[in-house]
Design a protein that fits this description.
The complex is a heterodimer of chains A (91) and B (540). Helices cover 85% and strands 0% of the residues of chain A. Chain A is built from four helices and no strands. Chain B is built from 22 helices and seven strands. In chain B, strand 4 (287-293) and strand 5 (301-308) form a beta hairpin. The chains are: A mainly alpha (91), B alpha+beta (540). At the A-B interface, helix 1 and helix 4 of A face helix 9 and helix 16 of B.
């Protein structure tokens, strides 16, 4: 169970990083920050790495098959939650 | 991409999505709720005692004693230990001679020998005797879950075919949706809630894309589920029109034991010995059930089905000699890779392998799918709203809007009515379980009628209030009629019962918020109404 919680936060962080690597969302998340090319790439790569970490953590709970099913559920929740947060909590 | 192609895909997406979307919504609501079918069963049968922490050892011992006493000459026993979510109680089943054989041999047998043929019991682990579950006749979560593919009142064959067509349209909707979404990646996290009809489209897109893997899986696996019903040509192509031959062919794809009697009575090895042998295996905890073929004969065989990974219904099959207890086979259940893939798809669809956390994720993904259908149907009307304000309302538009209100909110009220009926219908009532369902559909029918006679925005708001009250009152009705209420379940840490009431409260609050939001929008309706009246006046 604890592993799933870690996987959830890894996926959430990955989603935030991938979202932040997009120009329009970067301004929503960090209004005072400018998205440079280097920042965009580092956020994209680290975002995907966090998602990969989330898959690994999910797989570690039981096995890869069940882990992958859990990961897709987790990532649905993080993407949906993040998009709703962006809409309600930012300009 | 070619614009005309995208336009035709948009047309296909719109109409493939809309035509049966209300039935699809019903399938999604009942299917999503079905991920907690056993938990709903528990809430709807509060008088049935809960048995926890029962070892496989104890389950097998109690079941074996009962079966040796009550059905020693049966052809087959099945023992399902009480350890899984879907088998909270020790369940046994036995199968005797077929009715036909019994009738043929009736003259030679005494009346006592002829009875009983088959049996199916839930055993009390403490007394070793059948448990009385008849206090409250209810359809429970199982009836609710089955509705998503049998559509309840329809004939099975018609329902399966209709569900097949709708599922195929859903698959078309998903694929065309991906094709027509120009900015699928850049709009990944986009929800512009202030932008009128665009907000509904954004929410529709967000719900679809965030849960796209789930939607694809659930739709495709839904089609796989009854592929031979929906595509009978596959079986006919291989086996001709001989249904029995096709059925035999299907059985050849999996490992099944067919044990004939030798005619010589034999002493079945103690099942405790088998459990002892299994206990040294890594997958001992994954044992699903025990099957004993011809238990009183020298040819007796014992089959143990063990789950593995996603395959919760038994991926590994262990076959033991019934006389010596010697392991004869340790083999996978399926013989054919294609069937193996189909079984994995079915397992993914049912989600029986899922523990509590993954089960909640399944439930959440199901809610996203439900929301995707609802927002799609609402967007259809929102997009046409401005045009309608100019040209005047047409019947098609009003029909869709009424169905939207009566289904999207009304079905939820009907669902609450199903739970109310479980608590309020007299316990001794004849056909009680059926009437629970009748109550649900009567309320749904009323909810479908209501928007026909009311201004649409008022109807949305009123139905949201009714749904809110219906759900918020569930824990109160529960408190007044049973002991399984929050004041008992919370202190006892009974999260299945408490969780049900808490979800009901959360749903009620959700609908109350929706009703308040709609109330704030009511003045704007007057403006639209005014515009409509003006347009009519100009037209005439």
């Amino acid at each position: 169970m604890l592993m799933y919680v870690f996987a959830f936060f890894a996926a959430l962080l990955g989603s935030v990083l991938l979202c932040g690597a997009m120009q329009k969302h970067h301004r929503q998340l960090w209004p005072n920050s400018r998205l440079t090319g280097a920042k965009k790439w580092s956020m994209t790569i680290s975002g995907y790495l966090m998602l990969a970490l989330s898959i690994a953590l999910c797989a570690a709970v039981t096995n890869f098959g069940v882990g992958l099913a859990a990961f897709f559920g987790i990532v649905s929740a993080t993407i949906f939650g993040l998009a709703v947060y962006l809409s309600f909590a930012t300009k | 991409m070619n614009d005309s192609f995208r336009k035709s895909m948009t047309w296909l997406h719109t109409w493939a999505g809309l035509v049966f979307c209300w039935i699809l919504y019903f399938m999604f609501v009942t299917g999503t709720v079905g991920y907690f079918d056993n938990e709903i069963d528990r809430w709807m049968k509060p008088e049935v005692p809960v048995e926890t922490n029962i070892s496989i050892d104890d389950s097998v011992r109690v079941a074996e004693n009962y079966l040796r006493r009550e059905a020693p000459d049966a052809d087959r026993w099945v023992i399902t230990p009480a350890q899984w979510r879907e088998t909270p109680h020790l369940r046994i089943f036995w199968q005797g001679k077929t009715t036909e054989e019994t009738t043929e041999n009736a003259a030679e047998e005494s009346a006592e020998d002829a009875e009983p043929v088959n049996g199916n019991e839930i055993l009390d682990i403490n007394t070793g005797e059948p448990m009385d579950q008849s206090v409250r006749d209810t359809g429970g979560g199982q009836t609710l879950y089955r509705m998503h593919y049998i559509l309840h009142y329809l004939d099975r064959d018609i329902a399966y075919r209709l569900v097949g067509v709708i599922t195929m349209l859903m698959l078309v909707g998903i694929i065309t949706g991906v094709v027509i979404h120009r900015k699928i990646f850049s709009d990944f996290f986009t929800f512009r809630r202030q932008k009128g009809p665009r907000a509904w489209l954004d929410m529709h897109n967000l719900m679809s894309i965030s849960s796209l893997p789930f939607q694809l899986m659930i739709t495709y696996s839904g089609l796989i589920f009854m592929v031979t019903v929906w595509m009978p040509g596959i079986a006919v192509g291989s086996y001709g029109f001989d249904l029995q031959k096709a059925d035999e062919g299907l059985h050849m794809l999996v490992n099944e034991e067919h044990v004939e009697r030798s005619g010589e009575p034999g002493n079945l090895v103690s099942l405790q010995n088998i459990v002892e042998k299994l206990s040294s295996r890594d997958d001992f905890e994954n044992v699903r059930n025990f099957e004993v073929f011809q238990p009183g004969d020298t040819n007796a065989k014992i089959v143990v089905n063990v789950s593995k990974d996603l395959s919760s219904d038994g991926a590994t099959q262990l076959v033991f000699d019934g006389m010596t207890g010697e392991l004869i086979h340790d083999r996978p259940f399926v013989k054919n890779n294609a069937v193996g893939v189909a079984f994995i798809m079915i397992s993914l669809h049912e989600g029986l392998f899922a523990g509590p956390f993954v089960r909640w994720l399944y439930f959440f993904s199901g809610l996203l799918g439900t929301g995707m259908i609802a927002t799609g149907a609402i967007y259809w009307t929102q997009k046409r709203k401005v045009k309608i304000a100019e040209t005047g309302p047409d019947r098609g538009y009003q029909f869709v809007e009424s169905l939207n209100i009566g289904t999207i909110v009304g079905l939820m009220t009907a669902l609450a009515a199903y739970f109310w009926a479980n608590r309020l219908l007299p316990l001794g009532m004849e056909g009680r379980a059926d009437w629970e369902v009748h109550c649900m559909f009567i309320i749904w029918g009323l909810c479908l009628l209501h928007p026909v006679f009311r201004p649409k925005l008022n109807a949305w708001m009123e139905q949201c209030w009714v749904a809110s009250l219906a759900f918020l009152a569930i824990p109160i009705v529960n408190l007044l009629t049973t002991d399984a209420h929050l004041f008992n379940s919370l202190p006892e840490g009974d999260w299945v019962l408490a969780g049900f009431d808490i979800v009901a409260i959360a749903t009620g609050i959700g609908f109350a918020i929706a009703a308040l939001l709609l109330k704030n929008r009511l003045p704007k309706t007057q403006i639209v109404k005014g515009a409509l009246q003006q347009a009519h006046a100009q037209g005439s």
